[in-house]
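anyone seen this seq b4? input:
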Amino acid sequence: MVSRREFIQSVPVGALALATGGSAWAAPTGKPIPVEKVVALVGDGIPSRAIHYPGQLEAALQGDTDIGDAYLHEGAVGKLEARFAAMLGKEDAVFMPTGTMANQVALRILCGERRHLLLQKESHVYRDEEDATPVLSGINPVPLDGGTDEALVASAEAAFNQRGEDPYPVEIGAISIESPVRRLDGSCVDLSVIQRLSELARPNGTGMHLDGARLLLMSGQAGFDPRTYAAPFDTVYVSLYKYLGAPFGAILAGDKARMERARHVRHIFGGTLYHGWPAALPALRHLDGFTERFAKVRAAGEALLKRLDTVPGIRVERVPRASNIAILRLDDRVAAGLGERAHQADIALGGAQDGRLPIAFNETLLRRPVEAIAAVFPA
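predicted toks r here
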């Protein structure tokens, strides 16, 4: 059993911030929430307590003795790299200890000596990785307006139009696109926009990088396929801990030459761990059937939103090109005591600010009928 405060602490910080804007309901009084039964309308993955991790590893080890890696070579790490390379349609993939390192290694390789980087102004690389690009690699970030909309293309075009201005041309080494975007409530960039950005980049020798930390949360969207979505990009990063059950880690995928270089730069940055299998094993296990399971999550989330939209005092706001988040606008009657009502039903919520409550869908949504979940919301 785990108290609600312990539960909130068990949710990865990035996932919690994505769903709640960094705030949480004051911990209700009363019974603790059983973490294995909780329906968490916050975060991207299934929450667990640290003390459960040895048991999870033991379960993942059953029937698999070829798991050990040495400095991230072979074993479960090698299997995970091959799995992601195939899924994303790339020649090779490299395990990274963190997503920040995955992004920074990719951008360093893509930019080379062309030291301007185009990226969304809301992106993780620009807003949440300190000044890593200029400090580590001497790369100048150029933030773009447009978020996840078609306006992003116009912003990139304007940046390219400055490229040939005399006397000092602006050479653009790479375009980095985050999708889904954490700071835009998980909104995704449409593939047609990505293809238009690629058409700008290719004739100019500009690389394309996808910060797809939450890429697989797009599973179940009409027409979404990881390989197709990743195709316009030279490098793709996907997180292992946000929803794939790993305690840490990331995957960076691309062609063989760039990924061989990525292994060298990882070592330069201090990221060549002695063992990566404790992260690779649970990620491999959760990856099996994930896209199919998350398609079911998406369908259940849609059914829940339709029910909530009929509740007096609740208005559902859809996130454009949503991954797994929607916004509930609550009147005071509904908001009063909602945290306690949810807590008593073993449902965890984030915090409402000025009547705005983001809710996130993850695999815990499949633990209860949507009718039972919706029943806690009416005043």
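The chain has a mean pLDDT of 89. Residues 39 and 364 are 5 Å apart (CA to CA). kinda curious what u guys think
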